[in-house]
Amino acid sequence: MRNRLVLFAGAILIAGLMAFVTTPSSLAQGRGHGGGGGGGRGASPGGPPSGVGVDRGIGTSSDASMGRADVGRGNASDRSNGRSDAGLERARVASDNLRSADNDLRKHPNLASDLRVNANDLRAGYQRALATNPNLSFGNYVAATRLGRNLGGRNGNITRDAILAGLANGDSLGRTLQNLGLSKDQAKAEIKRADQQIKESKRRD
Q: Helix, strand or coil for residue 75?
């Protein structure tokens, strides 16, 4: 009987010891899980704000895109400015030439009448020609008109417009007339004849 009591008391003691040892382990495990959860929540406030990485990527992409856009706009602007500058220069040259033509027409009204046109029509035709060739002088326009009148009856392809096209292409009057079918000597003689007629018109003013 006594031995049973001893064994029973020993069993109770062992069970109590095991319960004591097991309980701190479970508590420690509970604190470990809680700490992990807390650490996870704590890491978020301590780390980069939500979306910072994405924003940084967008910012970099935007910077890169804006760089290309700036370069593109710069190139387009440069090209546009180049065209604008050239256009302004052409307009300035044409305006200067037209002003010179107005002076010639005021000083020499017979230039138009000898060509069987009025001064306004001669000026308007010259202005249209300047739109294609702003460097065309009024003297060359009058010469082209005179040559077209002198030669058009015998040479149907030699017209004022054909001569003006040759001048706009960068050819001289002589080269243009040769391209239209005259020999070098014929072209030279016809240019001399037209020049004399123009000078005669001016002398009679």
A: helix
- How many angstroms separate the CA atoms of 179 and 22, rounded? 116
12 secondary structure, DSSP code: H
Q: How confident is the model at residue 85 (pLDDT cuts 50, 70, 90)?
A: confident
Q: What is the mean pLDDT of residues 182-192?
A: 97
Query: Distance between CA atoms of 100 and 136, rounded to whole angstroms?
Result: 11
Please write the tens of the pLDDT for every residue from 98-144: 999 999 999 999 999 999 999 999 999 999 999 999 999 999 999 99
- Residue 187 contacts by C-beta under 8 Å, 6 or more apart in sequence? 173, 174, 175, 177, 178
Confidence (pTM) = 0.59
Q: Which residues contact 118 (CB under 8 A, 6 or more apart)?
A: 112
DSSP annotation string for the chain:
-HHHHHHHHHHHHHHHHHHHHHHHHHHHHHHHHHHHHHHHHHHHHHSPPTTHHHHHHHHHHHHHHHHHHHHHHHHHHHHHHHHHHHHHHHHHHHHHHHHHHHHHHHH-THHHHTTTS-HHHHHHHHHHHHHH-TT--HHHHHHHHHHHHHHTTT-TT--HHHHHHHHHTT--HHHHHHHTT--HHHHHHHHHHHHHHHHHHHHT-
Instruction: Flag the least confident range among 82-86, 95-99, 112-116, 171-175.
Output: 82-86
